[in-house]
Specification:
Blueprint lengths: L8 H9 L5 H19 L2 E4 L1 H16 L11 E5 L26 H8 L3 E6 L33 H8 L5 E6 L5 H7 L2 E4 L19 E6 L2 H11 L29 E5 L9 H16 L3 E5 L7 H16 L19 H12 L2 H14 L4 H25 L2 E5 L15 H6 L5 H6 L3 E9 L2 E8 L5 H13 L11
Parallel strand pairs: 2-3, 2-4, 7-8, 7-9
Antiparallel strand pairs: 1-3, 4-6, 5-6, 5-10, 9-11, 10-11
Helix pairs in contact: 2-3, 5-6, 7-15, 9-11, 9-12
Bound molecules: glutamine (GLN).
Amino acid sequence: MSQLHQLTAQQTIQKIKGNEVSAQECVEAVFGQIHKLEDKINAYVTLVEEQALTKAKEIDKKISEGKPVGKLAGVSIAIKDAICTQGIVTTCSSRMLENFVPPYNAEVIDRIKQADGIIIGKTNMDEFAMGSSTETSYFGPTLNPWDNSRVPGGSSGGSAACIATDEAVLSLGTDTGGSIRCPASYCSVVGLKPTYGLVSRYGLIAYANSLEQIGPMSKDVYDCALFLSIIAGHDQKDGTSVNQPTKDYTQYLKNDVKGLKIGVPKEFLGEGTDPNVKKQVWGAIHKLEELGAVYEETSLPTLEQSLATYYIVAMSEASSNLARFDGLRYGYRVDKDEADWATVYSQNRKNGFGAEVRRRIILGTYALSAGYYNKYYLKALKVRTLIRKNFEEAYKKFDVLVGPTMPFPPFKIGEKIEDPLQLYMSDVDTVSANLAGLPAISVPCGFTKGLPVGLQILAPPLREDLVLQVAYTFEQNTDYNGVKPEL
Ligand code: GLN
């Protein structure tokens, strides 16, 4: 039988509600795992054990008094450190925000609390979510649970690693260009980037606000659907929030893909895709075919431009969003009170931000500056529209599109960090969903030389139901889900 920390959210809730175990025991079991493994994995920046146990006891009390409890009762949840938590330091894994304690909760945090989910800590990430490897964190890299010499993916690397190691039952990540799906793929867990606007971004520290979404990471597809049902829904505090009634996504989890039309864009399997990754992904496609789906190879030519377009848009937005971190209003401040304002300002930013963040601010500022705005930023916006239209066309013919989440398996720590362009290349299959605002999931689809491979499934806007149904069917009919890293 599984130990308590190994349970999924669904199993944990059943056992707690059925009085088989207490919420306190479940949370203690997860912390047991954290204390055992954190030295090796470094998934967390901050832990809030005492708070979590107090909350667990409150839930146990409610249950013993016969009072109703929420849908996430007693589930240990880790939060990416880019999401504001009232009273809990929120660093974005940056020296700039090393001591920042938000005075309010992000909307998703309030929703988790209302559902009686238990926040256990804040997870490590690439600094300000800029990266694909969690190596740019000010607090050191998170290590891949499958091979400690490799990266866990990023930027939500901590949120993925803690699920793979049972150091959390659920986690929240954020995805601007792949940051939920990439680490989900590299750690062999499930991660969903929702449709733009489905989940409130209120209280998310912005990197590139027109691209990013908060989303669920979990041990299986059921938990992913359950968690999404809690965090999704209209929020008037976020001007881009979609006004749609809330849904219970678990009701769409049918083990059935009969007649489903799958498109396989050749651009997702293009140059630079590892042959073993291709093999696993084609294996997954044939599995879906065996289960009754029909697939066809297709082409979305604009995807060739998506990486360049993404980096112009993301860096431009970053240069603007990060302007507030000047050490005066927010953030790290050097001790140079006698110096003039401009010196203090630039010293604060030079010392508070790491190299990758500074690089992006500089490039983004350049792309937005007079004389280059039309050439780079405006052009990128136009290409972004073409990419969106290209997807619209494809969805006239196909229900979903599939491909690899990542073009190659997890790489060695230090292997790509000195060469930013190489690192950016790893986002080639994930960024287009963000440019077009589409829902996309990564679900484990096998291993190559002991390293995880993820299958990416994309659907039209607000069709999370479809993405989840296909992922669920795939998971139910394959054995990849139960496989755990040796720790
Ligand atoms: N790797 C991409 C980037 O560095 C995506 C990051 C993200 O989704 N936050 O921009």
